[in-house]
TrEMBL record:
It comes from Thalassospira indica. Gene3D superfamilies: Glucose-6-phosphate isomerase like protein, domain 1 (3.40.50.10490), Winged helix-like DNA-binding domain superfamily/Winged helix DNA-binding domain (1.10.10.10). The keyword ATP-binding does not apply. Keywords: DNA-binding, Transcription, Transcription regulation. This is MurR/RpiR family transcriptional regulator.
Length: 291
């Protein structure tokens, strides 16, 4: 394990013990590692909205002597990465020509979303997705929760999953049944929680309740230190960068779809038989319009 990875893991493992200001700086560093490589310590502190002394105390807390030592490790990481689509996307906004503005904005959105999805399929995240599938396969029940803008990703997984498995529970709280849908959750189950900042209270409460019942959590979220990811069995941290006023859930949705595809691929003939049976049932109800 490289030192940069060690530093990242140290920030995550010590996060709960840090002061609120140091937590703020640690979260910014975890979520924006390239800024450590490219900015001065004062510029990083400004971006994280903390005093420079907070960054200094944070480095001391994780055993780093100087800012240059800290930055060197992040610069080495950056050199190993391909050119960022997001950086090129920002370049497309540097125009004063109103005629080309809309086209450039759409190109910027496209490149940013491509970058979000590409980052979600790094070797580290791929191995974590495989581990998540193994946990899902061994679970008695699979509880899926995602509120607000994360709901489409949660629903997509739940709907597709129930086409070949009958142990999925979508925790959506219709008619005030949010708490009821978590009844009986325990250590033999698994919860998949989807969410990004600002976090929906219901999702956080569901995750906290799952933890209290010793149910492992698979967190599909935007940070290693999000309230969904803390103490999670498996963290699938995806980017939510957007050129709009609202965060993007494209990568989260892609990961949820990928989990379904992996589960089907690993499910063998039994999964195929169940999908065929589900299609026959849908046909009975004349669900889909036929040409």
């Amino acid at each position: 394990m490289g030192l940069q990875t060690d530093l990242r893991e140290k920030l995550i493992s010590d996060y709960a013990k840090l002061s609120p200001q140091m937590q703020k700086a640690a979260r910014y560093i975890l979520d924006h590692p390239n800024d450590v490589a490219l900015r001065s310590m004062r510029a990083l502190a400004r971006a994280a909205d903390v005093p420079p002394s907070t960054v200094t105390r944070l480095m001391t807390a994780i055993g780093v002597e100087t800012w240059q030592d800290f930055r060197d490790h992040y610069q080495s990481r950056l050199l190993d990465q391909p050119a960022s689509y997001a950086r090129r996307a920002r370049e497309t906004q540097k125009t004063d020509n109103d005629v080309d503005r809309d086209q450039h904005l759409l190109e910027s959105i496209c490149r940013t979303e491509i970058d979000n999805i590409s980052a979600a399929y790094s070797s580290d995240l791929v191995s974590r997705m495989i581990a998540a599938c193994e946990a899902i396969e061994n679970a008695r029940q699979v509880f899926i929760v995602g509120r607000g803008a994360a709901y489409p990703a949660a629903f997509q997984f739940a709907y597709a999953y129930r086409l070949f498995c009958d142990n999925g529970v979508l925790v959506d709280g219709h008619s005030g049944t949010f708490g009821d849908e978590l009844r009986g959750i325990g250590r033999r189950d698994i919860m998949i929680a989807v969410g990004a900042k600002p976090y929906i209270r219901d999702t956080v409460r569901a995750v906290e309740f799952a933890r209290s019942q010793h149910c492992p959590v698979i967190a599909v979220t935007d940070s290693d230190v999000s309230p969904l990811a803390m103490d999670a069995h498996c963290k699938l941290v995806v980017r939510d960068i957007s050129q709009s006023f609202f965060q993007s859930f494209t990568a989260a949705l892609s990961v949820m779809q990928a989990l379904v595809a992996l589960l089907v691929a690993r499910g063998g003939p039994k999964a195929l038989q169940r999908i065929a049976a589900a299609e026959e049932q849908l046909a009975v109800f004349d669900t889909y319009l036929e040409d």
